[in-house]
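Consider the tokenized backbone below.
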């Protein structure tokens, strides 16, 4: 499973409400450059991930007091190059399910492609 580490500002939030932290996490994910998300591994047509116009949605979140865990859906486009010089690239809708774990102490976040639809 491919995973990426990044830092968020979730640990700086004055609230301890998991829903508030999860909403902040979604905003952070929406603003991350696509290279910081493991979307390429979710491509199914041999193309490349184009997450410039992505949509992020929360599937589930929970907080155990030390970490916020969230399962997130990311909808993006996969661009597939043409087979020869006359073909234009084709864009396909794509989906990735990510598992995100953020330590509340320092905001260190691990983002991994979820391999199963739990």
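A designed sequence for it:
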């Amino acid at each position: 499973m491919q995973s990426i580490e990044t830092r968020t500002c979730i640990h700086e939030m004055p609230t301890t409400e998991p829903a508030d932290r999860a909403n902040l996490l979604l905003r952070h994910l929406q603003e991350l450059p696509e290279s910081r998300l493991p979307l390429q591994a979710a491509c199914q047509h041999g193309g490349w991930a184009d997450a410039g116009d992505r949509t992020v949605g929360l599937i589930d979140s929970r907080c155990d007091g030390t970490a916020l865990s969230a399962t997130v859906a990311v909808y993006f486009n996969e661009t597939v190059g043409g087979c020869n010089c006359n073909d234009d690239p084709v864009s396909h809708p794509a989906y990735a399910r990510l598992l995100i774990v953020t330590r509340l102490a320092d905001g260190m976040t691990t983002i991994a492609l979820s391999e199963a639809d739990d």
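The two ends are 16 Å apart (CA to CA).
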